[in-house]
């Protein structure tokens, strides 16, 4: 059994885990980031078709830790946002010029962000990425790995996703509900320039977002009734294009779908706290209250 020692162990090397790991390593801490996925899979073209809207503050975080310069060339600025109820002629309009010179945010492809995070992590000698490797349990400051090794750290951060088992074991309660909707994600190329305008139409089935990407492309987040989504996803290319075009409209001229379609179930989850005192396993067994998740009334999904 090998014991790796670190000041911070981050379980999960997704967008959040790697960002935290890089920030702490860049500040001088000894960091271990553990992820069960093979980095080659995570960096593959078919791993994640989403884009992320990066707000100005998040851009500054990524810039401060040396990641933004690696991704800025693939980021498209959001200069205006239009939000409309269905195709009503009146809409909410936000323009970056009303608040200053900086864009309202940027749209970045998740795969580009992941590549930049991995590249930056590779430049930090005090950040160790242990992957592919599953963390099977945690006891105090020790994370047990699937191969029998252990990572011991002063602090363990759970970045193991929405349904984080580590968060649950730490007794952190969540408020959660599922939406009866699915987010269909696709990339669309269009004839006319989007001029950095992000559009969100609130259609009967949910919001339909058109997010500006580089190179006259837009990322679609199409919220649809969960029952209808499998039928839409199984349509042939021509029929899927027709369905998408009828929601997209013609304001950007001819459109064509590029690459695969993706779908993500939509849910809300909010942790009641982001930190908890360290628990040893035997104390947790000896009667510490089990975390409970509270269900609240479902609302309409807004994945943006
Ligand atoms: C359609 C859609 C659009 C979105 N748009 C935006 C947006 O515009 N802006 C935005 O900020 N957010 C957006 N989000 C949300 C955003 O994508 C997620 O919040 C984010 O990807 C979560 O990243 P994460 O690193 O926390 O978790 P994850 O990406 O889930 O990563 C968790 C990692 O932990 C690893 N892991 C799990 N368990 C273990 C274990 N036991 N041992 C080792 N490793 C483990 C997994 O392999 C995984 O790599 C969107 C989400 C959806 C569905």
Structure description:
By secondary structure, this protein is of the alpha/beta class. The protein has a domain at 177-268: D-Amino Acid Oxidase, Chain A, domain 2. Helices cover 23% and strands 39% of the residues. The protein has helices spanning 15-26, 39-42, 56-64, 68-71, 110-121, 165-169, 229-234, 237-248, 281-285, and strands at residues 3-11, 31-34, 51-55, 76-78, 80-85, 91-95, 105-109, 127-130, 135-139, 142-145, 150-158, 174-190, 197-203, 206-213, 217-225, 255-271, 293-295. The strands form 3 sheets. Strands 5, 6, 12, 13, 14, 15, 16 and 17 form an 8-stranded mixed sheet that branches. The chain has a 6-stranded mixed sheet with strand order 8-2-1-11-10-9. A 3-stranded antiparallel sheet has the order 3-7-4. It is globular, with a radius of gyration of 21 Å. The protein starts with a strand and ends in a 9-residue tail after the last strand. The protein binds flavin-adenine dinucleotide (FAD). Flavin-adenine dinucleotide binds at residues 11-17, 34-37, 50, 52-53, 134-135, 159-161, 183, 185, 221, 264, 303.
Give a short overview.
With about 300 residues, the protein is an alpha/beta fold.
CATH topology of the domain at 177-268: D-Amino Acid Oxidase, Chain A, domain 2
Q: Rough shape? A: globular
Q: Helical proportion?
A: 10-25%
What's the pLDDT, averaged over the residues? Answer: 91
Residue windows where pLDDT falls under 50 for at least 5 positions: 282-291
């Amino acid at each position: 059994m090998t014991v790796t020692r670190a000041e911070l162990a981050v379980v999960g090397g997704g967008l959040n885990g790697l960002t935290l790991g890089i920030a702490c390593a860049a500040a001088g801490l000894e960091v271990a980031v553990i992820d069960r996925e093979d980095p080659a899979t995570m960096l593959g073209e078919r791993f994640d078709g989403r884009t992320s809207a990066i707000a100005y503050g998040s851009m500054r975080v990524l810039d401060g830790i040396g990641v933004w310069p690696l991704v800025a060339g693939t980021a498209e600025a959001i200069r205006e946002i239009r939000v409309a109820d269905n195709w009503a002629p009146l809409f909410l309009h936000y323009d970056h010029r009303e608040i200053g010179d900086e864009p309202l945010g940027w749209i970045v492809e998740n795969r580009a962000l992941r590549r930049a995070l991995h590249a930056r992590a590779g430049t930090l000698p005090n950040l160790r990425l242990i992957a592919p490797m599953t963390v099977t349990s945690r006891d105090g400051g020790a994370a047990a790995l699937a191969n029998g090794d252990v990572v011991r750290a002063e602090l363990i951060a759970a970045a193991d996703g929405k349904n984080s088992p580590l968060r649950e074991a730490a007794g952190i309660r969540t408020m959660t509900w599922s939406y009866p909707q699915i987010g269909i994600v696709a990339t669309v190329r269009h004839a006319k320039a989007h001029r950095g305008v992000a559009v969100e139409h609130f259609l009967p089935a949910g919001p339909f977002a058109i997010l500006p990407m580089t190179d006259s492309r837009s990322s679609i987040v199409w919220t649809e009734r969960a029952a209808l989504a499998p039928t839409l996803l199984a349509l042939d290319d021509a029929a899927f294009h027709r369905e998408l075009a009828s929601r997209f409209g013609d304001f950007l001229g001819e459109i064509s779908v590029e690459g695969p379609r993706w779908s993500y179930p939509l849910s809300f989850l909010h942790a009641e706290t982001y930190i908890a005192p360290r628990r040893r396993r035997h104390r947790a067994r000896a009667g510490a209250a089990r975390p409970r998740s509270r269900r609240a009334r479902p609302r309409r999904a807004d994945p943006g």
